[in-house]
Amino acid sequence: MSNIQESAHQLEVAIQESDEFKDLKAAYEKVMNEPSSREMFDNFRNVQLELQQKQMQGLEITEEEVEKAKSVVELVQQHEDISKLMEQEQRVNMLINDISRTITKPLEELYSAE
Amino acid sequence: MSNIQESAHQLEVAIQESDEFKDLKAAYEKVMNEPSSREMFDNFRNVQLELQQKQMQGLEITEEEVEKAKSVVELVQQHEDISKLMEQEQRVNMLINDISRTITKPLEELYSAE
Ligand SMILES: [Ca+2]
Ligand SMILES: [Ca+2]
């Protein structure tokens, strides 16, 4: 294994063992283990994915679709376990973004050198 | 420093010390140190950035702009030092992509668990 692969694997393990990731896992499992929560969360993700895909394909998003997405977000925000899950997702995303900034620093420094 | 920050920093150093990154740095410096190469490369990057920004803003890209971009790409591909630099960029990008896949594995595994 190269130094890079070794360091990347160490980082993977550190992420898995972090409080942020453990809390996300617990929040995710809590939602997945309650069928009504799971259905609501799956529905929320499907609506979001559909809109993202349309956006990426440059397709028009109708007013009805925007309204539907808004009401699904409002619904899950009022659901204690799902809103907790979404908070934990955001914490882990911030962690991953911090890491990405760190590992792309050498490239950024190179290209901003002159 | 947390384990994550420590591992991320080790990874940053491993990237900086990798052959891939060192070769990219050498190729970049070779282009930057030759004014005519540098001008051609800067022009190429500006044309690409402009098109990317237009695309992200959902603006229409004219046929003239597509033709201009194509001819700039053809020009830099024939330039030995710049085409070498672009190859090295691709190698480092592949490296970074591999790393990204590794560090997002815990998340992927969590969300594909059920
Ligand atoms: Ca540095
Ligand atoms: Ca794993």
TrEMBL record, chains A, B:
SUPFAM superfamilies cross-referenced by the UniProt entry: YheA/YmcA-like
The entry's keywords: Coiled coil
Bilayer-spanning residue ranges: none
Coiled coil region boundaries: 49-79
InterPro entries from the UniProt entry: Com_YlbF, YheA/YmcA-like_dom_sf
Keyword Cell membrane: no
HAMAP family according to UniProt: UPF0342
Family in the record: Belongs to the UPF0342 family.
Protein name: UPF0342 protein ACFOZ1_12715
Organism: Gracilibacillus marinus
